[in-house]
User: Fold this.
Amino acid sequence: MTHTTRNERRTATNVLVIGTGAAGLRAAIELAERGVQVLCVGKRRRDDAHTVLAAGGINAALGTMDPEDSAEQHAADTIKEAYHLADPAVVEILAREAPGAIEDLVSYGAQFAREPDGRLSQRYFGAHKYRRTCFAGDYTGREIQRTLVRRATELGVEMRDDVYVTRLLVHANRVFGAYGFDVDSGVRQVILADSVILAAGGHTRIWRRSSSRRDENTGDAMRLAAEAGCRLRDMELVQFHPTGMISPEDAAGTLVTEAVRGEGGILRNAGGERFMERYDPERLELSTRDVVALANYTEIAEGRGTPAGGVLLDITHLDRELILERLPRMYRQFVDVAMLDITHTPMEVAPTAHYSMGGVWVDAASHGTDVEGLYAVGECATGLHGANRLGGNSLVECIVFGRIVGAQAAEWSASLDVQVRDRRAIADAAEEVDGLLAQRGGRDFPRPLQRAIRDLMSRHCGVVRSETGLREGLEQLEEVEQRTRTMEVRPDIAGYDDLVHAFDLKGSLVAARATLECALERRETRGAHNRSDFPQRDPALEVNLLWRPDAPPARERVGEPSPAIAALLRAGGELDLTGRLLE
Ligand SMILES: Cc1cc2nc3c(=O)[nH]c(=O)nc-3n(C[C@H](O)[C@H](O)[C@H](O)COP(=O)(O)OP(=O)(O)OC[C@H]3O[C@@H](n4cnc5c(N)ncnc54)[C@H](O)[C@@H]3O)c2cc1C
Assistant:
């Protein structure tokens, strides 16, 4: 199938939002409330964006349960958990604005858990000093997503679930829209806009085991931004959750909640040994996420795992009724997905890529990027989490900075005198799609090449990394890149999925390269980044790493927290995390 004449649809709007997850929708709501025309697009159904997976909760120092809590303490906890790589300016804005974000959600109708007297309930979550996590059962993300979709609909926000964005349109370092295609019909989309908000998620699906589902978090945001001229930051900093399912293959990585260990689940290797006795004899399975992830990884890597490459998480010693009452979602998940009754049979688990702490570089206050008129927000942006994300902070990041970028984009749009629409840039974007559709003669298709990336990232850039492994990973990535030049992309009568997979693959290639190159450059062990050849933290590397496609990673100094927060950081001792959920 060759394309000589293109079926192209043109649309113009004041602000284009790419992404219909929590971050994109909150931005769109802000724009609509300000009376600014906005179009919000996504590549999958808005009621099923990745955000719906979020379970545990959303943070704000409301003090409903612990009145001594404060925004400053929230900021201090976040900076500490981030191993001092978070941007203190981003953290302070987040902590200050978080209570307002919860207020917004409640005013839109979000049903969070409440105490009998009507106060919002707040619980402990990870390394927070106080109870500051609001929740809606273990469906917090779903409730927030539902609330935001409803609010955006009420406000008349135009939302489209079928637009795949392939390129940002830029002229003289100023964004003027985006190019893409309709995922069902293949009709090309030229969307002209004064300003663009990128809210297209992270890149954790480029590992073989990932808590993201198929075709989400494939690194699209990172590619779109990097090719438009933005810098990426700290791409090597990726959080691995200790326990993801390992089979069936198409569900590999699906999260097994830490509540399983909280309820008394025991980890064993293939030899039946309770190996946490060696890694953390006191806290055993209730040790911190990074320690358990490293322990599971080490057992598997050193040959003590199961034949399928996992370790066993066993709750069969617990009362069946208790399991059904306390872990109903896990019980259902294993029955539905793996036909396995966890009350009788141990679960096979392994570490799974869970969250992208790195992403698109943004200015702290505005979340503007290196390209004028272009903003980034949510999991695709960076600055808040440093080398380790504090549980519950990402949802609130979407809501706080979603509002802020909405306001910024509105102001940018209103301030524009002239907007240049560069026909050459549009033609280049169109030719990129034409070129992919015209490729013939190779033996490769996008899906197996995606798998090749996921395999090499898991092998060479997983929980533990080394110079040799990372270099091998880069060599193998180069081979995959070569093969994509001749791969065949064949949309058919059922739709343009194959073209979607090809562009997902292009996103993954950029995200993988950035991650490998930054992981190589960070010659230390810090937070979620473990280097077997550099097992210590290096004070000289208390910096952020900035990445561009055509230059070696550069270093950026981390700012100083305000004096009040610095004092809390100095005063804070070690927290006892026993029994706390960390997702
Ligand atoms: C199992 C699990 C549990 C979690 N629990 C919590 C928790 O308890 N608390 C917490 O704070 N966080 C939690 N998180 C993290 C949190 O869910 C995410 O960080 C957050 O939802 C990201 O939202 P987002 O809006 O940035 O992106 P997403 O929700 O990922 O949305 C991205 C959007 O971009 C669109 N998109 C992507 N590429 C393109 C393209 N090329 N063209 C067009 N559209 C595109 C997608 O269709 C989608 O609409 C959890 C994550 C997981 C996986």
